[in-house]
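Meet today's protein:

…
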Amino acid sequence: MKHAMIAVLLLGVVAVGAAKQGRTYYTPEKIEAARDNVARFEWAQKQNALILASEPVKGALADSYVGADRLMELSDDAIFALMPDITIPRKRDDDAPTTLCPVHGSDIRRYGAHQPWKLDHERHPFKVICPVGGEMYPSNDFAAGDMTSGEYPDDGSGCVVDGQKYQFVRYAAHRMYLEYTVPALRGLSMAYLLTGKKEYGAKAAILLAGIADQQPGPKYHSEHCYGGPYGYRSGLVTDYIWSNIVAVPIAQCYDAIYPVYDEAPEVLEFLRAKGLPAATAADAREFVEERILRQTMQALLDVAIQGNPGHHQLAALTIGLVLDDHSDAHPNSYDVVKGAYYNGYAPAAWIFSNGVTRDGGGYEGPGYDRIKFSYIQVGLLMERLRAMHPGVYDLTTFPNILDQPKAKKMYEFYIDTCSLGFFTPPVGDAGGERLRPGIIPRRYYAPYRHFYLDGFRIYREPRYAKALLGLEGTLPDVDLFEPSIEDEIREAAASALAGIDAETRLLDHYGFAYLNDGEAGPFERETCINYTALRGHQQADYLSLYLFAHEQSHLPDLGYPFGWEYRWQWDSNTYAHNTVGVDGCNPLLPHAVPRGWVSLIGDRLGVQAAVVNHTPYPYHP
């Protein structure tokens, strides 16, 4: 069934004002804070080293860096060409799996069911490297314009060998965008911010123009979106979920390099030579805003892109702040911000009241629920927008979502669900421990430690300071552009109010019951039983039992599906979990199963007990 494109009629009345006139995301205070952090702190110096010298990271989702110094060795033409031509499809056909090799067949699945191939975007663009034999595909040099050479040629449409289709070029092009193009833009842009050297910014502006020139959307290159012609969930360069994720760093990078168009006239000269509008710095900026930011804004409003809860809302608020357009042009900042608050899937205004349980969990497993921390960023960005435009973003229409009690409860949830300083039950599509248990020493009081910096800044809860530092007392990678409050964090973590002690406990609204015994340390023991009613990324893991003792997971779970082709037959099946089966019956699908209930939980005189019930099977009278 084809989905009709959603037409959005923008009739909202907004205050009329000028569009972007300068940096709005990276304020002078943020830039000063970053430079101060690099001068003073080891954790910041490590981030700075990655910005300047990092190699491409396999499997990255635009959240890494390609080192700026290595990119400075490339010519401007080479930098511009780092964006793959948008006419190369990125989505594979159904009959062209990515986990088969012409020579080694399915053996490459030993190296991953999603991304088994090795890639070298710098030396061998548009080629994949077999992890078993080391041979490269396709046999032709696509980057040089050769479309037919060798035994395994691929001109972008695929290669057929013995009736089996392989699509090497489109796989490599898609991964290049995620693993190299956007991370390269991040490396160059952040290097420019930290050093002030216009050479980094000039290269970033050239690469950003290359991305803008190829960006598909509702107005330009609309036939070349990831999923086909522009429309409902078509995606943009990448799929409809990941497009939201990459939109954030791209918008941030544009804000970072905003001044360089005035500082480096050679950039404008280069862009004019490429036939792009760049008679003035304003022209070059407008090209990026029109092709990337506004097309992405319209895609958000049309649901051409839509992520997990928090993804598209964060993209909307980030672009809204970066573009800072409250003029009569549409779509503008107000349009997408209001859309993020009130429209579509999991709107920000109601996410904590309707999408988070009383104990801070969500309606997915702990792995996917962590994405809801994006709403904390949404709330912080809204307060920045409100400070800039108090008459536009009033508290009645745009409430401060960080004041909602369940926003704080999310931080409690990940402390409460952590066992033995490491383990979180891999319920739903989450985690997955090793099937041969090994010793895993205690490391932290909650996973995803970096989230707790914002938690401490906002709520000043000493336990969050302790969770942030972990058992080793070190800061994780945190936002380089925020002023350091490390002294406050360490003082709070050392206070008597920062105690985090495991005990027998119940997260009844989410559906976890924990029994705990023993002093914290190597001989502590904890078991958890799952009676959740997940509505997203769920598995048939009703009443799954998890046992953690002696720094090991004794009932490990497969966790996140190894592959999607057989998830319900294997990874997600009831019989792949440590749970109860009834007469070989198939349970109801997860969305039809209500949350279970606990009729007894107790801990007294060295004995812990719980009685937990669930009804995942249909009743046949």
Q: What stands out?
A: Residues 275 and 406 are 52 Å apart (CA to CA).
